[in-house]
Amino acid sequence: MNATNPLTAEPIRFDTKIAVLLREDLEPWQRLNVTAFLVSGLGTQVPEVIGEPYEDADGVAYLPMFRQPVLVFQGSKETLTAAHARVLARALPRALFTSDLFATGNDRDNRAAVRAVPTRDLDLVGLAVHGPRNAVDKVLKGARMHP
């Protein structure tokens, strides 16, 4: 998907990609919740993914959002584990969501739940990644677009 610059009317092409990979066995409400949590971390570490604030015709201001689409994928537990290993090997900006986070009720307990588990034992249900298009594609190998 290409954005259009209203000043030049030429498409804006992004050389990066924002992607979320969800484990395919999640309930619908979990998929939405995990996606929202995952993408919230990217803008804090990769500020260039955030576009300009919005304003409607009446001058009411709205928060800025990502400047580019977020692609959502799904895969098996094994696909997610492999993607996690690849994103770590490539040192790309990433966010994770583990199954343990469904049982916590606050940010402090979320961080403690992740901290308590070695990397190789994390029960991943979601992963978000940002980086060059080809690197993100390689991380997501084996995943398919979310329907």
Task: Provide keyphrases for this structure.
147 residues; alpha+beta; five-stranded mixed beta sheet; globular
Explain this structure.
It contains 4 helices and 9 strands; from the N terminus they run E-E-E-H-E-E-E-H-E-H-E-H-E. With 147 residues, it is of the alpha+beta class. The strands form 3 sheets. It has a 5-stranded mixed sheet with strand order 7-8-3-6-9, with helices on both faces. The longest helix is centred in the N-terminal third of the chain and has 18 residues, at 28-45. The radius of gyration is 17 Å and the shape is globular. The mean pLDDT is 91.
Report the order of strands and helices.
EEEHEEEHEHEHE
Number of helices: 4
Question: Helix/strand/pairing class, anyone?
Answer: alpha+beta
What amount of the residues lies in strands? 25-35%
Number of distinct beta strands: 9
Amino- and carboxy-terminal Cα gap: 17 Å
What is the average of the pLDDT values? 91
Note the main sheet.
Answer: 5 strands, mixed
Oligomer classification:
single chain
Biggest sheet strand order reads 7-8-3-6-9
Shape designation? globular
Low-confidence stretches: none
